[in-house]
Amino acid sequence: MIWLRILCACVVICLFSIPAVADSGARGRVAWRGKLIPEITVRAYRQIADIAGSEPVAVSAPTDLDGLYQLDLPPGSYVLTASNSSGGFKPGDLFCYYSGSPIQIPAEGYRNVGFNLIQIPEQAPVAEAKRSGVYGELSYQDELLEQAYLYVYKDPSKGFKGPGYFIQPVAKGSFRLNLPPGEYYLLARKRTRGGQFGPIETGDYFNYYYGNPVRIEAGQTHEVKIETVTRLSMLEEDLVAFHGVRGQVIDGVGKARAGLYVFAYRQAEMTGTPDYFSAPTDSAGHFELTLPDAGPYYLLARQAFGGPAGGDELYGKLLTTSGAVRSVELTQQVMEVKIHVAPKGTE
Q1: CATH T-level topology, domain 127-227
Q2: Distance between CA atoms of 44 and 104, rounded to whole angstroms?
Q3: Partner of 262 for a Cys bridge, out of 127, 198, 278, 292, CB 3.0 to 4.6 A?
Q4: How far is CA 318 from the centre of its chain?
Q5: DSSP code of residue 71
Q6: In the beta sheet, which residues pair with residue 74?
Q7: 274 contacts 154 by C-beta, under 8 angstroms
Q8: Rounded Cα–Cα distance for residues 78 and 56 (Å)
Q9: DSSP string spanning 156-215?
């Protein structure tokens, strides 16, 4: 029996030697037109291209009566969707692609992710045509959406950032667009500030086409109906503790500057598309920027989103007192910083 006692001792040692797995993942609420919806499942994928045909890496339990869910995930980058359907969509099903994807899940803790659902509409079957392409409408809660844009992408790997393959203005809600045979991802956006580029802010309209990718063959035309949504405050209320950087943007005389974005980069050069960005600073120059891990990060503030900064644009990097670029490492859950800005041409 000596061998049995040794074996039991080894098992006990092994059990106590296994490190505890930290809880991490996503939590939030799911709603349709302002109403919290039960019985919706949230799915996580490694990349956008996996949504159409691959198995998700994780699936949540259905949302409860208050539209709440929790999806446990190991640390990493994920694309999230929510739906009441596990197979092919049919009219009346509910769906949402989380437009903030990919999200970064931290080593410990949960990210707050809310879903604003749309209802799958009736659509005509694929039809024959002299020219291949798409036609259809952009809408918001059963009304045609005017002065919007249809975005066409061929490569989803960059998360639909930048101009993509083509941008079609949609003045009156209806559109028709000729496209060569191929596979396309379609999105709709309308910014209350106007323009084709920039972050989606409160009051803007946006959405991902539930039928992506659209596969077009020669001589085919597809009907595409994209119902847009807006950001809902009830979905953005934090269910988990904030983790990131808070602070203020001020000018050379210490005046708070409103309406500037704070960008976070992984590289000290701070060029190209930022890895993360804040909502515009408020009237007191305050901002809040959620970050997924300890970093390091490099921060800058500017008025515009995209392209090189203009000569009169307020712009500034987070610097040390000696004028060197300062990195931010989140050794604690929240860090406070001040970023000084000035017209780019005076640097």
Answers
A1: Immunoglobulin-like (2.60.40)
A2: 12
A3: 278
A4: 25
A5: E
A6: none
A7: no
A8: 10
A9: GGGTT-S--SEEEEESSSEEEEE--SEEEEEEEEE-TT-SS-S---TT-EEEE-TTPSEE
Task: Return d(Cα 32, Cα 221) in angstroms, integer.
Answer: 30
Question: What tens digit of pLDDT does each residue of 172-231 get?
Answer: 999 999 999 999 999 999 998 888 887 777 789 999 999 999 999 999 999 999 999 998
CB-CB contact of 139 with 173 (8 Å)? yes
Distance CA 131, CA 225 (A): 19
Rounded distance between C-alpha atoms, residue 137 and residue 222, angstroms: 12
Residue pair 180/159 in contact (Cβ under 8 Å)? The answer is: no
CATH 2.60.40.1120, domain 24-119, yes or no: yes
- Cβ-proximal residues to 201 (8 Å cutoff; 6+ apart), any chain: 191, 192, 193, 231, 279, 280
* Residues of the chain under the 70 pLDDT cut: 1-22, 234, 236-241, 332-333, 347
3-state secondary structure of 5: helix
Same fold, 127-227 and 244-346: yes
Largest CA distance in the chain: 84
Domain ranges of the chain: 24-119, 127-227, 244-346
What would the two tokens of residue 127 be? 């039809």
Q: Which CATH superfamily is domain 244-346 in?
A: Carboxypeptidase-like, regulatory domain (2.60.40.1120)
Strand extents, DSSP E, 251-294: 261-265, 276-277, 286-290
Cα–Cα distance measured from residue 227 to residue 197, given in angstroms and rounded to the nearest whole number: 20
> Is beta strand 109-112 parallel, antiparallel or unpaired with respect to 118-119?
unpaired
Bridge partners (DSSP) listed for residue 77: 104
CB 269 within 8 A of CB 241: no
Token pair of 76 as six digits: 């990493």
pTM: 0.74
